[in-house]
Amino acid sequence: MHISEGVLSGPVLAGGWALSAVGVGLGLKRLDYDRLMTVAILSAAFFVGSLIHVPIGPVSAHLILNGLLGAILGPAAFPAIAVALLLQAVLFQYGGLIVLGANVFDMAGPAVACAFAFGPLLRRTGKARAVGAFCCGFFAVLLAALLTACALALSGEGFAATAKAIVVAHVPIMLVEGAVTAMAVGFLAKVRPELLAQALTR
User: Which pTM value belongs to this model?
Assistant: First the structure.
């Protein structure tokens, strides 16, 4: 779901950078240094998960894992996703440096929003936690697709068809991401419950 260079209008690019700067700043402020290894590992998982992608016009469809990062890292998902997208832009030209702000906010904003929205379910056990984790994965991708579509639509009427195609193309990915997030959170609850406990207090 990377937006390519030269696609977005100036105001949209500026808005993306402003929102991402605020998000990264708040994420770093809420990040405990003893959790840096966890953040680094999940940032790497996000980086790898996004490498295999299918181009759709100026964007692409691929596994995102932003809901998983949001569920485990909370606000720290912003700097984790920002680093991963920066490396992808520099090393593989996915997206780009100028459009980096918009791409970061499109991915990290929904991750953090879902972490807060479904946090009460994630704090519970059993089926409630699984439902919360699934919702984190599903709705984080849905919101990311909608934000990407809005960014394109606001940049020109010519991108309206592509904006609609983005949301439709990511429906299967939403389901897969929901299932992956539910399984990952369930696994962590068994083997590293303290990791989830730390995440849910952020």
Answer: 0.87
